[in-house]
């Protein structure tokens, strides 16, 4: 079983990422009904939810999805760095693949392009990466 955690902040973007990840997992034989999804308020909470999923013995990997879009301050940089470090640490600690599907964009337009637009869907790509790392 593969779990997904998805941030609700910027849901117009993260909902698309989630759809892509679920579609990719379904095509790989993981029925949507059997993929646990934990919705969290924002990117900051992704690592805790991913940890809870990874702690389950029936979970082989976790897809973490979110979207942080640069604002007027450096807040985005702090969130992005902390979340990416926490997810990497979790992967190394649990030896389970933790997919990094956190968009770190400068603009909303960039995020839209990465959530099913002309750059593809990073939710699909993140799920594909987790699937590729299952051993």
Automatic annotation (TrEMBL):
Pfam families: DMRL_synthase. InterPro entries: LS, LS/RS, LS/RS_sf. Keywords: Riboflavin biosynthesis, Transferase. One of its GO terms (cellular component) is cytosol. The gene is ribH. Belongs to the DMRL synthase family. One of its GO terms (biological process) is riboflavin biosynthetic process. This is 6,7-dimethyl-8-ribityllumazine synthase. It comes from Aureliella helgolandensis. Catalyzes the formation of 6,7-dimethyl-8-ribityllumazine by condensation of 5-amino-6-(D-ribitylamino)uracil with 3,4-dihydroxy-2-butanone 4-phosphate. This is the penultimate step in the biosynthesis of riboflavin. It is an enzyme of class 2 (transferase). 5-amino-6-(D-ribitylamino)uracil binds at residues 9, 43-45, 67-69, 100. The active site is at 75 (proton donor). Pathway: Cofactor biosynthesis; riboflavin biosynthesis; riboflavin from 2-hydroxy-3-oxobutyl phosphate and 5-amino-6-(D-ribitylamino)uracil: step 1/2. One of its GO terms (molecular function) is 6,7-dimethyl-8-ribityllumazine synthase activity. PANTHER family: 6,7-DIMETHYL-8-RIBITYLLUMAZINE SYNTHASE (PTHR21058:SF0), 6,7-DIMETHYL-8-RIBITYLLUMAZINE SYNTHASE DMRL SYNTHASE LUMAZINE SYNTHASE (PTHR21058). CDD domains: Lumazine_synthase-I. Its EC number is 2.5.1.78. (2S)-2-hydroxy-3-oxobutyl phosphate binds at residues 72-73, 114. It catalyses: (2S)-2-hydroxy-3-oxobutyl phosphate + 5-amino-6-(D-ribitylamino)uracil = 6,7-dimethyl-8-(1-D-ribityl)lumazine + phosphate + 2 H2O + H(+). The keyword Transferase applies.
